[in-house]
Design goal:
Elements (H helix, E strand, L loop, with lengths): L10 H23 L6 H25 L11 H29 L7 H30 L6 E6 L3 H12 L5 E7 L9 E2 L2 E4 L4 H7 L2 E6 L6 H13 L3 E4 L17 E2 L2 H5 L8 H8 L3 E5 L4 H10 L6 E6 L2 H13 L6 E5 L5 H11 L3 E4 L6 H6 L1 H21 L4 E7 L8 H17 L5 E7 L1 E3 L5 H10 L4 E3 L5 E2 L1 E3 H14 L5 E4 L5 E2 H11 L10 E3 L18 E4 L5 E5 L5 H15 L4 H11 L11 H10 L1
Parallel strand pairs: 1-2, 1-5, 2-4, 5-6, 8-9, 8-11, 9-10, 11-12, 12-13, 13-18, 14-17, 15-20
Antiparallel strand pairs: 3-4, 6-7, 16-19, 18-22, 21-22
Helix pairs in contact: 1-2, 1-4, 2-3, 3-4, 9-17, 10-17, 12-14, 14-15, 14-19, 15-19, 15-20, 16-18, 19-20
């Protein structure tokens, strides 16, 4: 097959071609003006007029650099430049005509009618040359029959830009066959020669064409609208791609490589949260803020969001060295933010924590440090106790000692009716925070939410790795469901809850509807363009130690009261006597030193009676408690 070379046509050749077009235009203008019966007078004058026209046209070409564009990528901007250059040259001819008529010899060098015809022909021929060259190049280098059919969702500016990007990129191998749009005013019209259809017409389009991909190219698209079109595509095994936010475009231009596969997060995202910015800013402005677990998924996002509220300083505390270093670079390079301190240490190290408070004297503490992996903590209850319970106690006690204004603890829905050591350890930490608030001037609050998309250890990341390796994708049980929330959404609500707190509350977040993990796995496989059972398998592995089928946000004995924010509620929970809580915590400290797992878990069950183990060796303790009742 004949191919154009990939090297670009030299500028001087384009310049000469444009001048040749101008010579043809002015000659054709004379012939058209006189119906191809050119008077003998003008035969003689053409020997002067053609060089005269080419001289002034060449000057305008040099000034506006019409020859500098890459012909095969010509677009609307190039046509606009041609129009400006042509009209500038024609205006020059008119001005010289007027000067020659009134000041020199009373004649027009070029008749005005011919100037107009020449202008129209010049624009038409120069634009046609570029367009035809572009079409021929694309067809020879990237034939239509070798291209895959693509549909673009969105018939506005983003949709047009996306189509032009596909047309311009010779390597893309894509041909746009239709636009989809929900705006009735656009249905049936054409955009750049392509018809606009309603999304309901998608099945009919699929019957007539072999569509492989749909590109979502719509600015400010609603979450529900995006989810509907993605679900529709998944039903018909079409891969879905998305045009990124305009702020990420390189030099304000979209490239084909920036059009990425849609993520599973897009299927679970909800309408953006409206925050009370003034309340949050009033709480954080010019304060020293400490974030524990600052290198983790939640802690790092809290840090990023706090930046916008101009704290005096942010102290990032974590024991993970490499993630902290990555976070440092992220803040400096991506956010251009330097008003922070990195402190490496363990929240269970009381001496280290006290030194941190002595040096930086934080006003607000966001406590996100914790062990969160259910099976790992089920096998290591000593560490769950040391970090999640005693570590929280140390941070809380020292916050009280140094008169911290507010202490916000990040908890989990696994603390409700816990079936595992991790959930029980977080519930005990909640109890301590609640009780301590009764005797402290520090405002202690707890925020409780479910799984966050993309967090460390998230099922989403595990599925992605398994899909990349070719499977199998492992799901513990076909009926397992979980609540999901995006990391930014969860952290926004943490900040909002902190801003509206009076102290002692447990705030729970609206997590939406629970999602079946098996459905999540199937959708992720389809989004990757793979076929379940053919390209990749799904394997059931059985529930892991401490894992339960369904998660809850509230204890059976609890209910909620609303707040001003529709996504935040306050759990009405039973109160605990401070002295009793402190005594039980002292017992835990004593037991922890022996590293006896059974003794530790037994004491945890005494503190949290609703803690009933599932798929765990500690179920025998529940039987023992029942026998004593």
């Amino acid at each position: 097959m004949i191919r154009f070379p990939k090297s670009y046509t030299p500028r001087w050749i384009v310049f000469l071609i444009d001048l040749f077009i101008c010579a043809i235009s002015i000659s054709a203008a004379f012939l058209l003006r006189f119906n191809f019966d050119l008077p003998e007078l003008y035969y003689e004058r053409l020997g002067f007029i053609i060089p005269y026209v080419l001289f002034f046209r060449s000057i305008t070409f040099l000034v506006f650099k019409t020859y500098a564009g890459i012909i095969r990528y010509s677009g609307a901007k190039d046509t606009e430049r041609i129009f400006i250059v042509a009209i500038t040259g024609s205006i020059i001819f008119i001005i010289i005509n007027v000067i020659n008529y009134f000041l020199i010899n009373g004649t027009f060098i070029i008749p005005f009618s011919i100037i107009v015809i020449d202008f129209l022909l010049t624009v038409f021929l120069m634009a046609s040359f570029r367009l035809s060259t572009k079409i021929i190049y694309q067809e020879l280098y990237n034939p239509s029959k070798e291209k895959t059919d693509v549909i673009i969702y969105g018939a506005e500016q983003f949709g047009v830009i996306t189509k032009r990007t596909l047309d311009r990129d010779a390597e893309s191998k894509h041909k746009v066959i239709a636009f989809l749009d929900i705006e009735n005013a656009n249905i049936g019209k054409t955009l750049e020669g392509v018809t606009i259809y309603h999304p309901d017409y998608l099945p009919a389009l699929l019957e007539k064409n072999t569509v492989e991909k749909l590109i979502i190219a719509k600015e400010n698209i609603e979450a529900t609208e995006k989810q509907e079109i993605i679900e529709l595509c998944l039903q018909h095994d079409i891969r879905v791609l998305s045009v990124p936010d305009i702020n990420t475009w390189i030099n304000g231009e979209l490239s084909f490589n920036q059009i990425k596969e849609i993520k599973i997060e897009d299927l679970l995202e909800r309408p953006p949260i409206v925050l009370d910015i003034n309340k949050i800013k009033k709480k954080i402005l010019n304060k020293v803020v400490l974030v524990t677990g600052a290198a983790g998924s939640i802690g790092s996002e809290i840090v990023r969001q706090i930046i916008a509220f101009n704290p005096n300083k942010i102290v990032l505390f974590d024991q993970a060295e490499s993630p902290l270093y990555d976070m440092e670079l992220d803040l400096q390079e991506k956010y251009n933010y330097y008003n922070f301190e990195i402190v490496i240490g363990n929240i269970a190290d009381e001496y280290r924590v006290r030194k941190l408070f002595e040096v930086y004297k934080p006003t607000i503490v966001y406590h996100a440090a914790a062990y969160k992996h259910v099976p790992m903590m089920e096998n290591n209850p000593t560490e769950a106790l040391r970090t999640n319970i005693l570590g929280t106690k140390i941070i809380a006690d020292i916050s009280n000692e140094f008169n911290v204004e507010q202490f916000v603890m990040v908890s989990t829905d696994k603390a409700v009716n816990p079936t595992n050591v991790m959930g029980a350890s977080k519930r005990i930490a909640e109890i301590y925070i609640q009780a301590f608030n009764q005797i402290s001037d520090t405002n202690f609050i707890t925020t409780r939410f479910g799984n966050v998309l993309g967090s460390n250890g998230s099922v989403i990341l595990r599925f992605k790795k398994q899909i990349d390796k070719g499977g199998p994708v492992t799901v513990t049980h076909p009926d397992v469901t979980r609540y999901f929330m995006t990391i930014p959404e969860a952290c926004q609500l943490v900040l909002e809850a902190g801003a509206i707190s009076n102290g002692g509350e447990i705030f729970i977040f609206d997590m939406g509807k629970s999602v079946k993990i098996i459905d999540l796995a199937k959708k992720m496989i389809k989004l990757s363009g793979l076929i379940i059972g053919k390209d990749i398998q799904i394997k059931y592995t059985g529930l892991r130690p401490g894992e339960k089928l369904y998660e809850e946000l509230l204890n059976d004995m609890e209910n909620t009261i609303p707040t001003h924010h529709s996504k935040i509620m306050i759990a009405k929970v039973r109160h605990y006597d401070v002295k009793q809580v402190q005594e039980k915590f002292q017992d835990l400290i004593t037991i922890q030193k022996d590293h006896d797992n059974m003794s530790i878990v037994k004491k945890m069950k005494e503190i949290v009676p609703e803690f009933k183990s599932q798929n765990s060796v500690y179920e025998e303790l529940d039987i023992e408690f029942q026998d004593h009742e």
